[in-house]
Amino acid sequence: MLELPVIRELVSRCLIEDLGRGDTTTDSCVPHDAVGRATMDAREDLVFCGAPLVEEVFAQLDPRVQVERLCDEGERLPAGGAAISLEGPSRTLLKGERLSLNFAQRMSGVATLTRSFVDAMASGASTRITDTRKTTPGLRIVERYAVRCGGGHSHRSDLGAAVLIKDNHVAAAGGITPSVTRARAAATHATRIMCEVDTMEQLREALDVRVDVVVLDNFSNEQISAAMKLIDGRAVVEVSGAVSKERITEISALGVDVISIGALTHSARAVDLGLDWTG
Questions:
Q1: Which of 47, 64, 173, 261 falls between 20 and 30 A from 24, CA-CA?
Q2: Domain 4-118+268-277 adopts which CATH fold?
Q3: 53-74 per-position pLDDT tens digit
């Protein structure tokens, strides 16, 4: 769920970026009293996401605009399907067209890519597909919302949300054991200790110091299988790094708990949505 105060601030900033000096074209050639209708249509098969942002764009521009959702967030929409209908002052519809499409295309792109990874999991697998912090600065909240609309889950929200010891922490702190020992001493009783490992040797060390979550970074499928036998339920298992859609089926079949994929946000392309005038 997106919190209204957060999207209000985001949309306000983006409207200033696009309309800070007005809309020379629309104001010069469209009568001020003209009324129009349009639909936001899919031009390819996609998973739709972004209606709350579209609604907020037009609410801030002119509350007279009527915005109607024609599909649910996270719903598969075939090419030619309509996601949203709009009716109101023509000038307002034109001024909000590009920003509302930018939000919906970006968010639907993330949701669509996420759904493709979720759909690729092995039958019956309970593995979670999660995002990472590899998000567009300033847009993390909406990109992660889109991941969830696509059937995925969210990882830690920011650096203060959890202890995740990565390779550079290990290097800076002098090893896995001192890193985990210090982190555990500083953390609250409710904080899980997560540790990224690159080798089986590091994995053994992480298990010896009883980390709660091990992150197998850039492990091959064969290495993951061997690691799962070694871990044997002693820690939550997350896999990350170079996880392609083609690998999801086999990795999820190995019984890992989480697969984190930065590409869900940093490599999702904007899908093709258009605002088509209907009257």
A1: 64
A2: Aldehyde Oxidoreductase; domain 3 (3.90.1170)
A3: 999 999 999 999 999 999 999 9
